[in-house]
Write a structure and sequence with these properties.
mainly beta, six-stranded mixed beta sheet, 3 helices
């Protein structure tokens, strides 16, 4: 068979190759006991969960607790030293949610969270919604890294506008 094989990497490879790293702004608990972790990334940075409830694994960057191999709902999180939380962004939109009822180790203000499988459509689908500059992109190769797309500034957001 004299066939020519054409392969497009697509989401299968590029999606899993990227993460979105975000910082915890604060923790909050409502009057019903529901816990929220508010981070500095928002739906404009990773639209997939808000757009079609896409699942992304999320785990603290610096923790001694091993990330489970499989994400499963578990109501016994308290016994495992985990918190059951909604992980949300700071944009005042009901869809600015990365995960609901997710079991993670306790995190504090300033801690970093990794949102996995954000490589394929993270920046591509991002926007400057709510006047939020888009994040930078960093390529990591073992112990080396390079900024491949700089973080936008507010000046970048208004560069094309003219005062009348």
């Amino acid at each position: 068979m004299k066939c020519r094989v054409i392969m497009e990497p697509g989401r299968f490879i590029t999606g899993n190759s990227g993460i979105l790293v975000t910082s915890v702004i604060y923790n909050k608990q409502n009057s019903h006991g529901k816990k929220f972790v508010i981070c500095d990334a928002a739906m404009n940075d990773l639209l997939r969960p808000a757009l079609y409830d896409a699942f992304h694994r999320i785990w603290p960057v610096n923790t001694s607790v091993a990330m489970p191999d499989v994400e499963t709902p578990d109501t016994s999180v308290a016994k495992q030293g985990m918190d059951l939380v909604d992980i949300v962004g700071p944009v005042c939109e009901s869809s600015d949610v990365f995960a609901k009822d997710r079991a993670i180790p306790p995190v504090n203000e300033g801690d970093l969270l990794a949102i996995f499988s954000a490589g394929a459509y993270g920046f591509t689908m991002s926007s400057s919604y709510n006047s939020r500059p888009r994040s930078c992109e960093i390529l990591v190769d073992r112990d080396k890294y390079i900024v491949i797309r700089k973080r936008e500034t507010y000046e970048d957001l208004i560069a094309g506008e003219e005062l009348v």
